[in-house]
């Protein structure tokens, strides 16, 4: 990858990791917290990276949010998800980026804790380790979906079961982990994040997770880490169960003498299905046996490609904005020479240009906002040692830029009167803080 300048990660910046099963409300939580449509985050990732990245500002502190797929994801294997999470956390530790906490989201409406959720609890314990469990927080969701006092009582019972059962969240609470209720609002999401960050940094400046120590400090292969062992155990149990099912089915097929041709065909199809599943499980075990160096080389390469791609998109968005602004200026000059009776046509025509330019600005802002963290993950970014190395005008520009997420402006399409609130909000920031050259305020990194 060529030499490039990189946005700086500030010494006060923190990262929050959001985990949970598919359908637990992660996307809704992230959307409320950051003011961004969760769909935008997906556009900032690639087919080889499963984490979605967002950013926001809370009480003047920049927070990067990483949304992870659930370990019940139908498109990704547990191994690939663990690889992404392990590298992400390891690279944060290697680059001295502060982890503000890990949020595990669990719907309070679920009548029972699924096997996938239990597996995730165990993996999360292994990721953190006993000394850093205070960094993890249980966040129950969908309280706003309860419709009756009977629903409320059932939810309270489920909450207590989650909090105090040892093989669920009970053992984690004994090591300082807290639990919270997300009530579905932006204020509730912000409050949870504030408290989690405060808890994580209480009595220590930067807690180190077990996976970070094992991967970075001890340089263990992924399958030898505590979290890797949990995944290996899961696949080992699954392989053993599948082999037993295969043996039983084959014995039944061999001993049965009165099976019809159709029944034999169905039996053979089931054998093939079990064989395929067993092969996938054994392959996953093999893929987990990766050295720390190979894992970091692979993932850094993927993030480098993503970083470079988004950087190029930022440049394209800047050119698009400049082109729209130039065309709008020329159009307004031509219209100003026409008769006053054309005023209504002028207003109608110029309304279309700001809208197009505004959405380009929004895309540019969102992409720029995650570049500091992407640079760190790609191995081309650094964390600023202090404010002296940061360009003061850029700090002010960044503060205004990130504050827009919490200024009350609705980012989603369809919010506000024909999008005019959004246009006014974004254009107001653009006037106070015009786009700066990509190189301004950045440090050259190799």
From TrEMBL:
CDD domains linked: Ras_like_GTPase
Ranges annotated as spanning the membrane: 370-390
Coiled-coil residues: 232-334
Stretch forming the signal peptide: none
GO MF term set: GTP binding; hydrolase activity
Alphabetized UniProt keyword annotations: Coiled coil, Hydrolase, Membrane, Transmembrane, Transmembrane helix
Superkingdom: Eukaryota
Annotated G domain residues: 16-72
A Pfam family recorded for this sequence: MMR_HSR1
Keyword field contains Membrane: yes
Protein name, per record: P-loop containing nucleoside triphosphate hydrolase protein
Organism: Neurospora tetraspora
């Amino acid at each position: 990858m060529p030499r490039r300048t990189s946005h700086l990660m500030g010494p006060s910046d923190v990262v929050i990791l959001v985990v949970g099963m598919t359908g637990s409300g992660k996307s809704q939580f992230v959307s409320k917290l950051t003011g961004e449509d969760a769909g935008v985050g997906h556009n900032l990732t690639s087919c080889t990276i499963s984490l979605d990245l967002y950013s926001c500002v809370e009480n003047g502190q920049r927070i990067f949010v990483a949304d992870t797929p659930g370990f019940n994801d139908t498109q990704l294997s547990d191994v690939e998800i663990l690889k992404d999470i392990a590298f992400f956390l390891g690279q944060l530790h290697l680059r001295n980026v502060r982890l503000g906490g890990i949020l595990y989201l669990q719907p309070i409406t679920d009548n029972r804790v699924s096997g996938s959720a239990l597996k995730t609890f165990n993996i999360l314990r292994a990721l953190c380790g006993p000394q850093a469990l205070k960094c993890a927080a249980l966040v129950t969701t969908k309280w706003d979906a309860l419709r009756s006092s009977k629903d409320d009582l059932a939810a309270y019972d489920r909450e207590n079961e989650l909090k105090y059962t040892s093989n669920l969240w009970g053992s984690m609470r004994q090591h300082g982990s807290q639990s919270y209720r997300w009530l579905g609002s932006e204020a509730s999401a912000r409050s949870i994040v504030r408290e989690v960050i405060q808890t994580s940094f209480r009595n220590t400046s930067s807690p180190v997770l077990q996976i970070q120590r094992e991967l970075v400090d001890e340089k263990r292969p992924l399958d030898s880490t505590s979290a890797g062992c949990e995944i290996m155990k899961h696949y080992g149990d699954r392989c053993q169960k599948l082999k037993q099912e295969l043996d039983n089915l084959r014995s039944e097929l061999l001993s049965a003498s009165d099976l019809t041709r159709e029944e034999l065909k169905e039996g053979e199809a089931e054998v093939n299905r079990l064989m395929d599943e067993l092969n996938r499980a054994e392959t996953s075990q093999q893929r987990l046996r990766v050295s720390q160096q190979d894992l970091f080389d692979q993932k850094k390469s993927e993030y480098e490609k993503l970083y470079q791609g988004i950087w190029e998109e930022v440049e394209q968005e800047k050119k698009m904005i400049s082109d729209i602004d130039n065309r709008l200026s020329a159009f307004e000059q031509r219209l100003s020479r026409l008769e006053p009776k054309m005023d209504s046509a002028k207003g109608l025509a110029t309304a279309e240009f700001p809208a197009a330019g505004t959405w380009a600005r929004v895309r540019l802002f969102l992409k720029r906002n995650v570049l500091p963290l992407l640079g760190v993950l790609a191995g081309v970014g650094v964390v600023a040692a202090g404010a002296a190395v940061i360009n003061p005008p850029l700090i002010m520009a960044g503060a205004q830029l990130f504050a827009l997420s919490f200024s009350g402006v609705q980012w989603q399409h369809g919010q506000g009167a024909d999008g005019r609130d959004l246009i006014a909000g974004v254009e107001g920031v653009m006037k106070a803080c015009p786009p700066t050259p990509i190189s301004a305020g950045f440090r050259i990194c190799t």
